[in-house]
């Protein structure tokens, strides 16, 4: 067993993990932060995206021990301090960027990383950035609209692919 310590959503946490424990498993099983979803365990769906030291990471591809000493942000830490939805979450709600909700935490975390890197992305840039996130319900159109709205841009009619 290996002792790990990190800051998750602004709080210091620690635990003991086996060397093979994935960050996604540590977050869900040890810290009970179940908003980080496990969709594939093969790094293809993006449902498990979290931020590690400010970078978007698929947490099913990283060992918990690799995050020792890191700052980790999960979907549970994205709301405003008063508990209200942040601008990205509110845009997803307003523009119907979710249906079943399974992919939503990873989409929101990816959107936050995109908007940090590129505050005013084009529709094409949003679609390109989300390439590693799979949604089986929405067809992505409303997700793209939500991200554009969260960036403060006018939301054009999004063309079908």
UniProtKB/TrEMBL annotation:
Q: Which Pfam families match?
A: Fer2 (PF00111), Fer2_2 (PF01799)
Q: Which UniProt keywords apply?
A: 2Fe-2S, Iron, Iron-sulfur, Metal-binding, Oxidoreductase
Which InterPro entries did the record assign? 2Fe-2S-bd, 2Fe-2S-bd_dom_sf, 2Fe-2S_ferredoxin-like_sf, 2Fe-2S_ferredoxin-type, Beta-grasp_dom_sf, Diverse_Oxidoreductases
Q: Which domain of life is it from?
A: Bacteria
GO MF annotations in UniProt: 2 iron, 2 sulfur cluster binding; anaerobic carbon-monoxide dehydrogenase activity; metal ion binding
* Enzyme nomenclature, EC number: 1.2.7.4
Tell me where the transmembrane regions lie: none
Q: Please state what the protein is called.
A: Carbon monoxide dehydrogenase small chain
Species, as recorded: Litoreibacter arenae DSM 19593
């Amino acid at each position: 067993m290996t002792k790990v310590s990190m800051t998750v959503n602004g709080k210091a946490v620690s635990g003991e993990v086996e060397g093979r424990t994935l960050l996604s498993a540590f977050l869900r099983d040890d810290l009970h932060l179940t908003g980080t979803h496990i969709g594939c365990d093969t790094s293809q769906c993006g449902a498990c995206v979290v931020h590690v030291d400010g970078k978007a990471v698929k947490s099913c591809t990283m060992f918990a021990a690799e995050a020792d000493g890191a700052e980790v942000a999960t979907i549970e830490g994205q709301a405003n301090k008063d508990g209200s939805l942040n601008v990205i979450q509110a845009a997803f709600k307003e523009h119907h960027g979710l249906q079943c909700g399974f992919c939503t935490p990873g989409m929101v975390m990816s959107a936050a990383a995109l908007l940090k890197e590129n505050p005013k992305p084009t529709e094409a840039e949003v679609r390109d950035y989300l390439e590693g996130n799979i949604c089986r319900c929405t067809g992505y159109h409303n997700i793209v609209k939500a991200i554009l709205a969260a960036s403060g841009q006018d939301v054009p009619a999004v063309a079908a692919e």
